[in-house]
Automatic annotation (TrEMBL), chain B:
Belongs to the ComF/GntX family. The lineage of its organism: Bacteria, Bacillati, Bacillota, Bacilli, Bacillales. SUPFAM superfamilies: PRTase-like (SSF53271). It comes from the Bacteria. This is ComF family protein.
Length: 647, 250
């Protein structure tokens, strides 16, 4: 997209000189001319012709060229152009104009009668308010903005440009280019480097790709990283709506339960303790105003501690304060599952659910539940962001989503992160006591976590040196190593207890042979394999939940979310590098989830005792000890003398 | 969020890693590291998913299986057409990545795949001894072009022309905005496309009309051949030409 670049001056100093120039970009000059000439003190408008690509125009805007003192503008135009070209050359490595454009550059003085076709460019105040309301705190690409306008009933072609221009001049929105270039010195003695970043997802040079662009007729960069959410280009405007506080339905919220009364949430003692600490964190006002970074709080709760239940009182407290809250979770099904539960808990609240293809995309509300990718569309909107399972797949090692989460909160916003297995850097921060946190070391049923047992077992990779694992070879080697017995014995025991087994393998290709092998051994047991490429995945998982499938063989895709009472967990090849400690802890957390069967069994079958296994076991044991120290466990674990407690 | 090292050290480390790692290629589709010997710059898994048309069964449309459409059709204006791959679910996704999502980085991949289809065309008997005179492409309507930002067929044609040093000529203009061909039914497509094209007089004037021209039309997907047929009809009405088609998928 090409825009007009112009400078305005509407003040003279004592000598009648015009010094203070301000630069703007314009999508529709007509609106600008009307806007400026409405003001009293005869402004000077100088337009640079021809139109420039948006990215370049915005950089010039920021560089803020000053013309120097001017008196009689009309005589100076050639001088000004010369001046400007010198200025441009100065910043040449920063912004490059094609030679064709450079030759055409001229300045023009604008009169109030120019660009005037008699139309009034001001917007209907009702419409203006509606637009402001629906884009506040959001960061939208032009296409998305036009979509919003269409929803509000602006169907006239090209109306968007005057609306954008109007809002821009009135400082209701901020306009950025999708991708920007900056100069940055990485080390003082090195040359300055061009730094290219996507304003929307924060990714750098490695995700940029240059093509000939139809809209700006130049070579134009686009960001490949966030392309699934729309194309962010060097020349597409990114529109940031100023965030107003959302007060609409605040009066309608009935503050049924003051936060001090946590009883009706039915939380257990350890959960309550965590909620109280988190509430204290939320109520804290910041002392150091100079640090503009949002503050973080980690709730480190073991698997099955009831994390979701702990979120409810926190949300309530924030809502009572009139804040807007975002609850971000990694998966869409969790969003859909949470919505009715939250609506039931807060019947008066307008809850907006956002995910790919959500019908509520542009709605406003007090509480947002969204998949983490949707955070990209917000800008400094939320007072409190709750991130569920921040170590799970999309968040883990994904700088884009972390960037998105950063920018979606207000400068003084608060983050509450929930995790059973925080990433290692965060654990380090916790140990150094730099990150405020609370641990919930026990499950809601107050039994200790099952401790994994390690069993020596040949690695699957050894068994099948070929790519395709044969069922016969597995059998042969298992016989050879005489370990088949152990595995079968354990599984038999599980079946005998009436429990289901959850078998985790490191790779998809092992699943089918393994299932076949088990089927020969347990003929009357329903054994199924599930992988990410399985089309019947959801039916199979459902059947496993209903206990129709007794043994489920799978990969790490089911490491979280699936909760089946009375399950034993087998992790084959636990030394594989597919399983890091977080995955191991999560998988081990599938066992012993229910009140009736709190003691499931967890086995690590591995050839080597790797670091991740050791760390995972250590983490689980530490949590159990902590729970015991705090007195969270049931009385039966405190009977007799201390030596009896075996964790 | 929790970078444990200062920013400048990180950038330096990233720089060093880029020097010392020998695997600089990443797969265009799935972003995994791709082996350097893959000319399509895909990883092995993605490369193995391409359903290449290795054996052409239908001599008219270049189909990989027995074709009833071409027998049914009576008046075709083009000679024949060749395609590189079978249009299945995976290929549909790939094309959508490029066409609708607008990930133009995939262009090089598509052009390389187009080259395969072009070779199939050249291998066919009647073209063995004669040169191809020019490429041309199916134009997009202005509205669609504004939506998408580029014309995929034009990009492919330009890419092929770079590879083979054969010029691209814009022979046809589109006068009517039609519905997407991918949504219409089989019979709908015929009526939908009729009268949508008009010859580009300016270019035609410059062409020597005394000898027969062999023109290759580039398009992304061949489903019923109605677009290609309509196109060939317009061209043959104005020029003594033989029209061939090269499409990416069939």
């Amino acid at each position: 997209m090409k825009v007009q670049l112009y400078a305005v001056n509407h003040s003279r100093d004592q000598n009648g000189m015009r010094i203070d120039w301000k630069w703007y970009v314009s999508f529709k000059m007509q609106v600008d001319v009307q806007y400026w000439f409405k003001q009293r003190n005869h402004p000077y408008l100088i337009v640079l012709k021809p139109k420039l690509p948006l990215g370049i125009a915005l950089i010039y805007c920021k560089l803020h060229h000053s013309f120097g003192p001017l008196k009689h503008f009309n005589q100076d135009i050639p001088q000004l152009t010369k001046n400007w070209i010198r200025f441009m050359l100065l910043h040449q490595e920063h912004v490059q104009l094609s030679e064709k454009l450079q030759k055409q550059l001229t300045f023009q003085m604008v009169q109030s009668t120019q660009y005037n076709n008699g139309m009034d460019s001001t917007i209907n105040p009702n419409l203006e308010r509606e637009i402001k309301q629906s884009i506040q705190g959001r960061e939208l690409l032009l296409a998305e903005f036009i979509h919003v306008l269409k929803k509000l009933g602006c169907t006239i072609e090209d109306q968007w440009s005057s609306i954008i221009q109007y809002l821009y001049l009135n400082e209701q929105i901020e306009i950025k280019s999708g991708v920007t270039m900056n100069l940055k010195k990485s080390l003082p003695w090195l040359q300055q480097q061009k730094e290219i970043t996507c304003h929307r997802c924060g990714s750098g040079k490695e995700n940029m790709y240059q093509t000939l662009c139809l809209f700006c007729e130049e070579h134009c960069l686009y960001c490949e990283h966030c392309i699934t959410m729309g194309k962010s280009r060097y020349c597409t405007p990114l529109i940031r709506g100023k965030s107003l506080s959302y007060m609409k339905s605040q009066s309608s919220i009935i503050k049924i339960h003051p936060i001090s009364n946590l009883k009706h949430w039915n939380l257990s003692e350890p959960q309550l303790a965590a909620v109280r600490t988190a509430c204290k964190f939320l109520n804290e006002t910041k002392h150091r105003i100079s640090t503009k970074k949002p503050s973080y709080f980690l709730i480190w709760a073991v698997t099955g501690a009831g994390k979701t239940e702990m979120v409810f009182p926190l949300i309530q407290q924030e809502i009572n304060k009139g804040h807007q809250v975002m609850l971000a979770t990694p998966r869409k099904d969790v969003v859909l599952e949470l919505q009715p539960r939250l609506q039931k808990a807060f019947p008066y609240l307008h809850i907006v659910t956002l995910y790919g293809g959500s019908p509520q995309k542009w709605e406003e509300g007090n509480l947002f539940i969204a998949t983490t990718h949707q955070l990209l569309r917000f800008w400094q909107k939320f007072d409190c962001i709750i991130v569920d399972e921040l170590d799970a797949f999309p968040f883990h090692n994904n700088e884009m989503l972390q960037y998105a989460a950063m920018k979606a909160s207000k400068p003084h916003g608060k983050y509450i992160m929930l995790s059973a297995t925080p990433p290692t850097q965060m654990i380090k921060l916790v140990e150094q006591d730099q990150l405020p946190h609370i641990k919930v070391p026990v499950r809601y049923h107050r039994h200790p976590l099952p401790i994994p047992q390690r069993v020596s077992f040949p690695s699957l990779q050894q068994i099948c040196s070929n790519d395709q694992m044969e069922f016969t070879s597995l059998k042969g080697v298992l016989h050879k190593y005489r370990v088949e017995k152990v595995l079968l014995h354990h599984i038999r025991e599980t079946i005998h207890r009436g429990a289901t087994s959850f078998i985790f393998l490191p790779k998809i290709k092992y699943i089918n042979p393994f299932v076949d092998y088990l089927r020969t051994k347990f003929k009357e047991v329903n054994i199924q394999g599930v992988s990410s490429i399985d089309k019947q995945r959801e039916q199979k998982v459902q059947a496993f939940r209903n206990r129709e499938i007794e043994i489920l063989v799978t990969t790490t895709i089911l490491e979280r979310g699936v909760t089946v009472p009375n399950t034993d967990v087998y992790i084959i090849d636990a030394d594989s590098n597919m399983f890091d400690e977080a995955a191991l802890v999560q998988m081990a957390g599938r066992a012993g989830r229910s009140m009736q069967y709190p003691d499931g069994k967890v086995y690590f079958y591995s050839n080597e005792k790797t670091k991740s296994q050791v760390v995972a076991m250590k983490q689980i044991k530490q949590m159990n000890t902590l729970a015991k120290q705090k007195g969270y466990l049931k009385e039966q674990y405190y009977r007799k003398d201390r030596g009896d407690f075996n964790v | 969020m929790f970078e444990d090292k200062p920013h400048f050290i990180q950038t330096q480390l990233r720089f060093l890693r880029s020097i010392f790692s020998n695997n600089l290629n990443t797969c265009l589709i799935c972003k995994e590291t791709a082996p350097t010997y893959q000319t399509l710059s895909l990883c092995n898994t993605c490369a193995s998913m391409i359903p290449w048309i290795s054996k052409v069964i239908c001599p008219i449309c270049g189909r990989f299986e027995v074709c009833y459409d071409c027998v049914r059709k009576s008046n075709t204006y083009y000679e024949y057409s060749r395609s590189a791959v079978e249009y299945n679910e995976t290929m549909r996704e790939w094309l959508a990545l490029y066409k609708y999502r607008g990930n133009e980085r995939l262009e090089s991949l598509f052009i390389k795949m187009f080259d395969y289809a072009f070779q199939l065309l050249l291998m066919s008997t009647s073209l063995k001894n004669y040169p191809i005179h020019c490429f041309t492409y199916i134009p997009l309507s202005e509205q669609r072009l504004q939506e998408r930002g580029f014309n995929q067929a034009e990009r492919f044609a330009r890419g092929l022309s770079r590879l083979h040093q054969i010029p691209v000529i814009e022979l046809i203009k589109r006068v009517r905005h039609t519905e997407k061909q991918s949504v219409g039914s089989w019979s709908n497509r015929f009526s939908n496309i009729q009268g949508a094209f008009v010859i580009n007089e300016k270019e035609v004037k410059r062409i020597n009309k005394k000898r027969v021209m062999r023109i290759v039309v580039i398009d992304d997907v061949y489903t019923t051949g109605s677009t290609l047929n309509e196109y060939a009809k317009v061209i043959t009405a104005h020029l003594p030409a033989k029209v061939y088609g090269v499409t990416w998928a069939r």
